[in-house]
Fold 2-methylcitrate dehydratase.
Amino acid sequence: MQVHQVRTHRSDENLEREGQLAWKLAGVATDPVEIDDAVAEMVVNRVIDNAAVAAASITRGPVVSARSQALAHPVSIGGDGSTVFGAARRTSPEWAAWANGVAVRELDYHDTFLAAEYSHPGDNIPPVLAVAQHLAARRGLTGRDLIRGIATGYEIQIDLAKGISLHAHKIDHVAHLGPSAAGGIGTLLGLDRETVFQAIGQALHTTTATRQSRKGEISTWKAHAPAFAGKMAVESVDRAMRGQTSPVPIYEGEDGVIAWLLDGPDGRYEVSLPEPGEAKRAILDSYTKEHSAEYQAQAWIDLARKLHEQYPLILDPEHVESIVLHTSHHTHYVIGSGANDPQKYDPTASRETLDHSIPYIFTVALQDGAWHHVDSYAPERAARPDTVALWRKVTTVEDPEWTRRYHSLDMDEKAFGGRVVITLTDGAEIVEEIAVADAHPLGARPFAREQYVQKFRTLAEHVLEAAEIERFLDVAQRLPELGPDELGGLTFAVAPGALAAADVPEGIF
């Protein structure tokens, strides 16, 4: 890996292209290095994973809304159009990226990478896939081309997440997604470095926003934010291909992102990127979710399931004085009591809020010994009196060692769990800890192809017919060998009547 020093430059310093981070990212995207087998295998896994969570969310309000917006637009004339999960016809690629991006993110149930910044790098797949489907016949794009584009998207987003913190300045993490998706599309299409450079700059410029979408009363925009970044990436590449330019230097400029949105004129970062000819393997550092909840909750759910079996006494709030989760800075301040969000203890809070409340999640997983993507968030489940009583006894505190491990770039020690101290009313204590989720590559039951396939089967069985489940899994698992005429099969049709109860909203389109 090459380490790049990134800082703000005054306008009179005239920072050359070669010194700009966006140019270096474009170099990663335009490096013709082939992918290795392990990366190709994992891309297939994540395509299946995305489709699984999209199927589970197909009738939810934000997904119905985004799909209806997308289908209000015809296929653009430059290609054959792109598929939309659950829809019978195609639409324009930027709108397919939008609809599918919302479907993938709605349940917060796909892959993750956490370092200096947070990310869900699977969000790169909808925009790259949409462009691949639209232009497959015109450009002769294959499954191998799609895999290379997706691998670039993962590489750029994960490398940025390792080096540049956005949340420290309350900027939403999708500011890394716009550039990564633009880079992935550039790789897919074999674009030149200057074009990808301009597209990355435009994608970054249009996707910086505050983190209020993930604070307090969390709204449905949480699912739309990454879809918007993907849509902007598609449009940014289109503009760049037409010769349109972007703000330069976008990261390092005197009035650029670092100077005014991040660490300021004195801010400095180190971003490590692959050397020319070095394989793009960052996807292998990411991890998916077994449970539908914010990633920092994954290990805690697994620990709660274990405690449910071992200590049935603690399921009753009358026997518990307090439950304290000693954990990382992020878990404490973003999804824990350190956020000081009263909504995290509100039984009437939205699903989006509850899946960012570790006190709620730990309580329900502890009492139920399980976690379900629908039932665990049901209003009647959240309002159960014994749950509310126990929930309000759960707090978090930051532990410096868990914060250090959270930010470690040594994948063998990187951790997202912590230590729980349960104090009983008789003064006794129960102390347990967990470092990583069971499904993590270093966890008790790491996810492999079998688990990704099972996740798809489980989440899709209520809305897809059995034959359609098998058809999709066949196409997805043949991704490296797919020809241009087969990329359109990377979607799914729902069973007759599955969308009948969905209330399609009306808008402008």
User: Anything to note?
Assistant: The CA atoms of residues 82 and 272 lie 34 Å apart. The first helix runs from residue 21 to 30.
